[in-house]
Amino acid sequence: MNNNEQRRRMIILDPEAKSPRAQGFENGLKSRVIGQERALRSITSLYQVFQAGMTNTNRPIGTMLFLGPTGAGKTHVVEAAADMIFGDPNSVIKIDCAEFQHSHEIAKLIGSPPGYLGHRETSPLLSQENLDKYRTEANPFTFVLFDEIEKASDSLWQLLLGVLDKGRLTLGDNRQVDFSQTMIIMTSNLGAKEMSEMITGSIGFAPSKKSGMEESELDQKIYRTAMDAARRKFSPEFMNRIDKVVVFRSLKHEQLRQILDLELRAVQRRIDEGMGERFIFKATDATKEFLLNEGVDLRYGARHLKRAIERFVVNALANLAATRQVRLGDVVWIDLNEESGKLEFYRDEAEFSIAAATMDSIYEMRRSEEGARIAA
Ligand SMILES: Nc1ncnc2c1ncn2[C@@H]1O[C@H](COP(=O)(O)OP(=O)(O)OP(=O)(O)O)[C@@H](O)[C@H]1O
Ligand SMILES: [Mg+2]
Description:
Bound molecules: adenosine-5'-triphosphate, magnesium ion
Oligomer: single chain
């Protein structure tokens, strides 16, 4: 652009900008997934390319490979994305590669040829109808998740390469399935054992706040381990077909604490939306530390956190509600008894949650309105 006249008419554009929908998608993901920004950015940018209608018609919309430590959110990111777009975390076609090791198991994915035993018995998992099942007018595409691809058998591997390459799959009965409107995410925890050794070696078993190794140094080591293991295991043809490889980071104490808060809020939502008494519970900091200690072994990331919450919080609250020790509008405090090392539950006589009570009367009103409508 050497012409000054021409330059004056130019307006600077921003290729990094996000559409409101893509921005809304990314924000929603951030409220469901703690950390792992690179994964969130990658999936958002794929979504934006899709929205702009600039995807290639004879390939999937995009293909991503998620690597990294166990329990760090690889599967969770895909479920969170499906929840944001289709309103249900289960609206994903999910293939656990470890379950398809033998040829008769591959038939569950693609069906068997006509005349074979089992032909037409069940509809194959990767049929066009299944791919189309979750699509909506606003979002006519499907997430397809291949979990633990390092465990895929050779025949599954051939199938996968074909899908990545041509965006098509031929079923047992020769029908074609079109994968051009899918986002394919593959996960693998190749190198997970080495990674968990690095994580425990650097920080110790308890989710302590101190760390021996610099955190960025640990993440770099994890990155190298994951990439080396992937290059050793997967052929260059395969790696070349992937649009984006993302190595997840190990979750740090502060992030695990935020995940705990997310999970506790989810429990409160279950109470708010459930059929039983509506009350509010509050956990002290000591309670949260207790749950982190019980639910987190850094080798497994956040994997066991939900189980600890079920065991120590949900079961106890359910018992309290079932025995009517907790009633509508109550505020229940959960605290740690330092001496016994156990959680204790209190009801504050002076505290009453208007919010919980109001919520209940709204539900009550709706229920009686509905009853009246049905009766009329
Ligand atoms: N970054 C995160 N943000 C929010 N929740 C998380 C995160 N990471 C893990 N979790 C929680 O922990 C559970 C286990 O995580 P997830 O299944 O995604 O692990 P993964 O990385 O797929 O591990 P694996 O390699 O063993 O399959 C999730 O269901 C979610 O509740
Ligand atoms: Mg997983």
